[in-house]
Specification:
Chain lengths: ~180, ~160
Amino acid sequence: MDQDALLSAWRAVDTTPKNTTELKSMLLEKRHPVLKRIRRQLIIETLAFTAFLFVYYDLFDGDRKPIYINGLIAGAMLLAITHNMIGYVLTKRPIRADNLKQSLEDHLFKMKIFAALSVASRALMAGCLLLFFTFVITFNTEKYWILIGIIGILLVQLTLLSGIWFRRIRQMKGTIDNLYHSNN
Amino acid sequence: MDESQFVQLIDQHQGIIHKICRLYRDAKEDREDLFQEIVFQLWKSLPTYSGKAGFSTWMYKVALNTALVAFRKKKPAIIYTPTLPDEPVVQQEPGQQEEQLFEALKKLNDGEKALITLYLEELSHKEIADIIGITENNVSVKLNRIKNKIQQLLKK
């Protein structure tokens, strides 16, 4: 296919147009596919964490534990909720850069910070929950092995989460390198 | 610019968005999602549009940025057909050229797709350089490599 044929094929691409009513509905935040998913996660986790904060003191003997442990639990839950809200805000932020290079580099920078926050908030929440629930336990050998198993599972989950972010960051870096630094 | 004027402009230029979605996403559902993300992002970013460059030039920048940064679902596209064909489906000539073109374009990396999209939309090298953020000379060099790559892919 020569150059003219390439251009002709491109011009002839079938693009079934959407009507203006459909286009207008896409301006609504509630129709945005990614924001919808984050919003759903935000609502579910906020309700779950809030419900936990309301019941944990009586249900899980919060009064038998030091204030700082209770503070850590509340802080960890709030951090997780804040992390989801930051993700929501970052997804809908407008593009301000003068060109693609600036906006991609800006996005990569923010992605790295959000990735660190994502992993840290999950690690902190897991650590605080573990500390809370094990504080009054008298450990024997069997219980120590169970604790090691639980920590192992949590570490696997954090490794998987880190892996997901690592791959996303690597993909974005690859795109930027191919566009701006590649000699191929 | 109010909402109605914006929607009219998008309506006039939506072909660009369709082509970008076709290039960057394989599954129909993913293309629909990306189309929506792009339109939403254009609306949100409208206050940053200074009017110095043409509306379509600004659109390319926002649309390509959105396509490049949007998360992709990893699940493979599974297409169900009601019956298995007895013979291979042979398409008419114009459709076949279009399919050949997209098969080749999809094998490019994301950055190359952005450059070739702007070239096929018949933007000047200067316009492409301004959108991408590289020099005009760099645009020429990269486009030559990409066009050669496409020709090699089309020969296979």
